[in-house]
Automatic annotation (TrEMBL):
<keyword id="KW-0598">Phosphotransferase system</keyword>
<keyword id="KW-0808">Transferase</keyword>
<keyword id="KW-0812">Transmembrane</keyword>
<dbReference type="InterPro" id="IPR011055">
    <property type="entry name" value="Dup_hybrid_motif"/>
</dbReference>
<dbReference type="GO" id="GO:0016301">
    <property type="term" value="F:kinase activity"/>
</dbReference>
<dbReference type="GO" id="GO:0005737">
    <property type="term" value="C:cytoplasm"/>
</dbReference>
<feature type="domain" description="PTS EIIA type-1">
    <location>
        <begin position="58"/>
        <end position="162"/>
    </location>
</feature>
<dbReference type="GO" id="GO:0009401">
    <property type="term" value="P:phosphoenolpyruvate-dependent sugar phosphotransferase system"/>
</dbReference>
<keyword id="KW-0762">Sugar transport</keyword>
<dbReference type="GO" id="GO:0005886">
    <property type="term" value="C:plasma membrane"/>
</dbReference>
<dbReference type="Pfam" id="PF00358">
    <property type="entry name" value="PTS_EIIA_1"/>
</dbReference>
<keyword id="KW-0472">Membrane</keyword>
<dbReference type="InterPro" id="IPR050890">
    <property type="entry name" value="PTS_EIIA_component"/>
</dbReference>
<keyword id="KW-0813">Transport</keyword>
<feature type="transmembrane region" description="Helical">
    <location>
        <begin position="6"/>
        <end position="24"/>
    </location>
</feature>
<keyword id="KW-0418">Kinase</keyword>
<keyword id="KW-1133">Transmembrane helix</keyword>
Length: 198
């Protein structure tokens, strides 16, 4: 649990990024939520079986303290960019990546539970902080079978860490993740600008 809490702070705070990652977050372009963005969907970053975030075996994720999202039990060890955007955090052990979408969504992809304890074993990160990526670009490779054999849960959590910026974060009704959207985001601006009493 401490690892998860540390990651939350590291992902959101520049000073803590320096402590955990060894570098400070550089100034990024303004990533405020774009209400007129036509594409506010998050695609599946991994293939596998979709499960509710509330059912994962980690209290912090399951409580949605980090934000709303969902989880995927992977059947393949590749993680691809779920949106067009910029890599804003890369954990040294390779088990987590933060990406800010061009639309403003801040997404955390966390591979496995307590997998930080593997110290990078069975993970290979393919991107760097501040790298611009397109949806579908390869971000990380990991060995599902070896991680399981080592005794770790390989469930991948996909979290919208700036959930408060959205009126709605809607998970898909699909049960399998492949080349499909898994989260639909509705920025607050859309609701606030809508006519009243319609």
């Amino acid at each position: 649990m401490g690892e998860v809490i540390g990651l939350i702070v590291a992902f959101l705070g520049g000073a803590i990024l320096t402590y955990f990652f060894g570098f400070a977050r550089q100034q990024q372009a303004d990533h405020s939520v774009v209400s007129d963005q036509s594409d506010n969907t998050v695609m599946a970053p991994v293939e596998g079986t979709i499960i509710p975030l509330t059912s994962v075996h980690d209290e912090v994720f399951a409580s949605e303290a980090m934000g709303k999202g969902l989880a995927i039990v992977p059947n393949k060890g590749t993680v691809t960019a779920p949106v067009d955007g910029t890599i804003t955090a890369v954990y040294p052990t390779g088990h987590a990546i933060g990406i800010t979408a061009n639309s403003g969504a801040e997404i955390l992809i966390h591979i496995g539970i307590n997998t930080v304890q593997l110290n990078g074993q069975y993970f290979e990160t393919m991107v760097k902080q501040n790298q611009v990526v397109k949806r579908g670009d390869l971000l990380t490779k990991f060995d599902v079978d070896k991680i399981k054999t080592a005794g770790y849960d390989t469930t991948v959590m996909v979290i919208i860490t700036n959930t408060a910026d959205y009126q709605m974060v809607k998970p898909t009704d699909a049960t399998e993740a492949s080349d499909n959207w898994i989260l639909e985001l509705q920025p607050k601006e859309i609701m606030e600008g809508a006519p009243a009493n319609v």
